[in-house]
RNA sequence: GGCCCCAUCGUCUAGAGGCCUAGGACACGGCCCUUUCAAGGCCGCGACACGGGUUCGAAUCCCGUUGGGGUCACCA
């Protein structure tokens, strides 16, 4: 039976190849992340950045960064610096060498706005904030939906307002009809009806463009092809496509990501959640201890009016210097607060690649059972169709488990030392900063099984402080050394002599000696190990004792035992 | 409240009409290991929101109900 062999003509092959490539090269995917610099990056923003970055890297496209600093009151240079640092930490490298700052692009926006005004597609509006609020509440009282539509001003009125030099905004005269667009995640035909249309502000009275306007103009200029952002922007998209149509811009592909929810409240995860938690706790403490705001003010040293205002108003937030004072007063530790900022995760010792892995799973899945992925794997597996529609609660337990696993898997290599160094760079109070790479490697090994880098740090600080500075915890002394007529102290005194004989001093020999000691006395290892632990570390919890003693060395071990015994 | 989006274990999810007695991960419970705290091993518990259709057959398609979320700024 003759096999039907087909010869493909090389020219045909070339043509097919070219056909395939041409449209590809002319539609290189360009994504962007466009945060506003008002503080550290939070996980919601990080997830948005991640998805945009992944799409660009997966397709060999570009990922651009733009700073939306049009809110003069809230944007700061410090925040921009923090934002960039967080993005670098996460490993999202952007492809525009020159960062785009919206605040530096006013002439460009104004030229476009002038053009719109001259075409009758935008106009100056002179209402004050108070007038607008009044109009809104009037509508609310009448149970009517408020929609701003162009007021009919006479030429006379306009002349008068202008001669008075009245402040004004510029609004976009949005054509009243239905707006529809296709969403790569939510499907076709998203949008709103004509009844929802209103003339939104495109230039504020301080001369800055609004978000809606800046986004549209800049996305066009930067050649953005795909906009991935949170679902809270879904309806904003109608404003954006209206503007694009008026300006003759092409429409990018939109993909709206599920919202990340606070597992406790079920609402959108917000920077304010930490503050809320402190306020809630403060309220409880005051009720339980019958303390007044004045008492709290006295304890924290904060002004009473400031404190009462904060207590009463959910919208008010403590600033970074006030927060720790109130936390201390109401017995909250940093670890009790939910991490929300990327910086918090860094400071607590999560690995950036793990945070990314976890964040990627919030609203996206590669399909099947696949969960643990390196950055490289995320890049190669990422695709728009893996993005889900349903909102996701931010569950820290799973992140913690991922981090534990990743640290355990990599705890012997240079990556973990590097990670620990990075952790220490944002935790300047740790004595481990003075440790050598070799010491750090040992600390990490001794603490194998830790969840976050904060744990080996916490549990190993005693190794890096002078013997004199070891602080003995009273409850540990009581429970381990003083209880039962000082059995523990007695064992400690006796094992001290045995330890002096150990030669050479290493974990194996120390173990042998201590175990021999236990056998001889017919007591359990715990009866001896715990007293030693308390003596050298000050607490009942430490890394495994034999390794700990090897690390400390004989002299320091004996010195700490002596000091502990004499303090009883 | 208007408009919009969504709906599988407690949580994150797999699932594209028969591969589903619904899979995985985390959490949780039990046992084991153990010098503390952990980590680890083994086993277990646990979901298609509800009601109607369509179909030989529905977690999967359609409609409704309920529930949750988002959004209604001169913030982004």
Describe the protein's architecture and organization.
The strands form five sheets. Strands 1-2-3 form a three-stranded parallel β-sheet. The protein has a three-stranded antiparallel β-sheet with strand order 4-5-8. It has a two-stranded antiparallel sheet with strand order 6-7. It is built from 24 helices and twelve strands. By secondary structure, the chain is mainly α. It is elongated, with a radius of gyration of 32 Å. The longest helix has 28 residues, at 474-501. Strand 6 (179-183) and strand 7 (187-192) form a beta hairpin.
Number of helices: 24
What proportion of the residues form beta strands (DSSP E)? 5-15%
Mean pLDDT comes to 91
Regions with little confidence, pLDDT below 50 for 5+ residues: 1-25
């Amino acid at each position: 039976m003759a096999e039907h062999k087909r010869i493909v003509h090389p020219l045909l092959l070339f043509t097919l190849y070219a056909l395939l490539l041409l449209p590809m090269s002319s539609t290189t995917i360009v994504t962007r992340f466009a945060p506003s610099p008002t503080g550290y990056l939070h996980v919601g923003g990080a997830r948005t950045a991640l998805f945009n970055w992944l799409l660009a890297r997966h397709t060999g496209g570009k990922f651009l960064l733009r700073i939306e600093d049009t809110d003069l009151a809230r944007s700061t240079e410090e925040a921009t610096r923090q934002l960039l640092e967080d993005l670098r930490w996460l490993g999202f490298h952007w492809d525009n060498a020159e960062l785009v700052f919206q605040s530096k692009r006013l002439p460009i926006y104004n030229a476009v706005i002038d053009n719109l005004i001259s075409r009758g597609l935008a106009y100056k509006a002179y209402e004050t904030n108070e007038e607008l609020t009044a109009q809104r509440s009037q509508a609310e009282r009448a149970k009517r939906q408020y929609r701003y539509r162009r007021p009919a001003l006479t030429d006379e009125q306009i002349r008068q307002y202008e001669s008075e030099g009245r402040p004004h905004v510029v609004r976009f005269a949005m054509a009243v009809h239905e707006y529809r667009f296709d969403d790569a995640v939510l499907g076709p035909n998203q949008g709103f009806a004509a009844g929802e249309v209103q003339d939104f502000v495109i230039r504020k009275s301080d001369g800055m463009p609004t978000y809606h306007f800046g986004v549209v103009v800049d996305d066009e200029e930067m050649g953005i092809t795909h906009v991935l952002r949170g679902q809270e922007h879904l309806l904003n998209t109608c404003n954006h496509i209206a503007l694009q149509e008026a300006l003759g811009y092409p429409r990018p592909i939109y993909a709206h990501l599920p919202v990340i929810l606070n597992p406790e409240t079920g609402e959108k995860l917000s920077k304010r959640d930490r503050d809320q938690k402190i306020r809630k706790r403060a309220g409880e403490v005051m009720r339980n201890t019958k303390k007044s705001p004045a008492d709290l003010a006295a304890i924290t040293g904060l002004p009473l009016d400031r404190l009462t205002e904060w207590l009463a108003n959910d919208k008010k937030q403590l600033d970074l210097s006030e927060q720790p004072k109130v936390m201390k007063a109401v017995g909250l530790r940093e670890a009790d607060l939910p991490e929300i900022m990327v910086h918090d995760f860094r400071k607590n010792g999560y690995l950036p690649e793990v945070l990314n892995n976890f964040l990627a799973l919030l609203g996206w899945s590669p399909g099947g059972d696949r969960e643990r992925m390196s950055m490289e794997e995320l890049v190669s597996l990422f695709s728009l169709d893996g993005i889900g529609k349903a909102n996701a609660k931010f569950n820290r337990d799973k992140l913690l488990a991922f981090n534990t696993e990743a640290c355990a898997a990599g705890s012997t290599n240079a990556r973990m030392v590097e990670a620990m160094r990075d952790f220490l760079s944002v935790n300047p109070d740790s004595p481990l900063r003075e440790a050598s790479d070799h010491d750090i490697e040992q600390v990490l090994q001794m603490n194998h099984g830790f969840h976050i880098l904060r744990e080996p740090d916490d549990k190993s600080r005693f190794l890096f402080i002078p013997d004199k500075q070891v602080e003995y915890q009273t409850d540990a002394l009581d429970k381990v050394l003083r209880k039962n007529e000082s059995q523990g102290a007695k064992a400690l005194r006796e094992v001290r002599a045995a330890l002096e004989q150990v030669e050479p001093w290493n974990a194996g020999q120390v173990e042998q000696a201590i175990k021999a000691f236990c056998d001889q006395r017919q007591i359990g290892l715990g009866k001896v190990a715990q007293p030693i632990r308390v003596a050298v570390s000050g607490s009942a919890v430490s890394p495994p004792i034999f390794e700990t003693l090897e690390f400390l060395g004989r002299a320091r071990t004996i010195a700490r035992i002596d000091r502990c015994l004499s303090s009883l």
